[in-house]
Amino acid sequence: MALRAVLLRQLRVPVQTLALAGCKSQPWSFSSCIRLMSSHDDHLSKEQVIGRVLDVVKSFPKVDPSRVTPDVHFQKDLGLDSLDNVEIIMAIEEEFKLEIPDKEAVKIDSCNLAIEYVYNHPMAA
Amino acid sequence: MSVSTAAYLARRAAQKERVQILYRRALRDTLTWAVHRHLFYQDASNLREKFDANKHVEDLDAIDRMIAEGEAQYNKWRHPDPYIVPWAPGGSKFTRNPTPPSGIEIVYNYGREDND
């Protein structure tokens, strides 16, 4: 009996980590599922935007995927030129179904700016 | 000296932006012209080769002339009915079912809420 009490006192069930893991394994929350049929897609979370932008940049043929981080500069850090920059922005536009005005799209030259722009865009989907 | 250097750099920067915008528009137009994605890849790489062929030109006036030529060519071959993202002006979903402004909600009482 004493042994059981000691054992129970030492025993810790990792409830919290389990709950967190459960959240992470289910990326679509209920609120975002229920908006799928509406004419406007629900707004994206920051993590979704970061993940998808990084996926797009990593899948660009001239980019070494291991060097891509959320605050990487396309031309300074990844060794791309200005036309590659244009192609990456086009790919990001297609990924999020956006249409970025030319003057603004030319100004986006790093992952950080791209993530900020997409996250703040009301039509990003 | 420094004034002319600054002017030179400013002109180069303006040219760089012009080329970027021209390439962007041309690439978008290529995507509109190409019926299938696998056709687009070949067209896009041809377009990129055309731009890369004049990558190392240093003469400012020659660059200006080339950009003007490229823009003229782009305008000549521009697609008459380009693809537009659905929500954008001219798109198929433009102003359809917009979300109501904040502070306005739909009440499903059909006007009876005043008479009760």
Automatic annotation (TrEMBL), chain A:
Family note: Belongs to the acyl carrier protein (ACP) family.
Function: Carrier of the growing fatty acid chain in fatty acid biosynthesis. May be involved in the synthesis of short and medium chain fatty acids. Accessory and non-catalytic subunit of the mitochondrial membrane respiratory chain NADH dehydrogenase (Complex I), which functions in the transfer of electrons from NADH to the respiratory chain.
Gene3D superfamilies, A to Z: ACP-like
PANTHER family associated with the record: ACYL CARRIER PROTEIN (PTHR20863), ACYL CARRIER PROTEIN, MITOCHONDRIAL (PTHR20863:SF28)
Subunit-level organization: Complex I is composed of at least 49 different subunits.
Keyword list, A-Z: Electron transport, Fatty acid biosynthesis, Fatty acid metabolism, Lipid biosynthesis, Lipid metabolism, Mitochondrion, Phosphopantetheine, Phosphoprotein, Respiratory chain, Transit peptide, Transport
Protein name: Acyl carrier protein
Taxonomic source organism: Hevea brasiliensis (Para rubber tree)
Signal peptide: none
Transmembrane segments: none
TrEMBL record, chain B:
CDD domains referenced in this protein's UniProt entry, alphabetically: Complex1_LYR_NDUFB9_LYRM3 (cd20263)
Lipid bilayer topology: Peripheral membrane protein
Its biological purpose: Accessory subunit of the mitochondrial membrane respiratory chain NADH dehydrogenase (Complex I), that is believed to be not involved in catalysis. Complex I functions in the transfer of electrons from NADH to the respiratory chain. The immediate electron acceptor for the enzyme is believed to be ubiquinone.
Record keywords, A-Z: Acetylation, Electron transport, Membrane, Mitochondrion, Mitochondrion inner membrane, Phosphoprotein, Respiratory chain, Transport
Subcellular location: Mitochondrion inner membrane
Chief subcellular location: mitochondrion
Keyword hit for Membrane: yes
Domain of life where this protein originates: Eukaryota
Protein name: NADH dehydrogenase [ubiquinone] 1 beta subcomplex subunit 9
Keyword Membrane annotated: yes
Subunit-level organization: Mammalian complex I is composed of 45 different subunits.
Pfam families according to UniProt: Complex1_LYR
Domain Complex 1 LYR protein: 19-73
Family (UniProt): Belongs to the complex I LYR family.
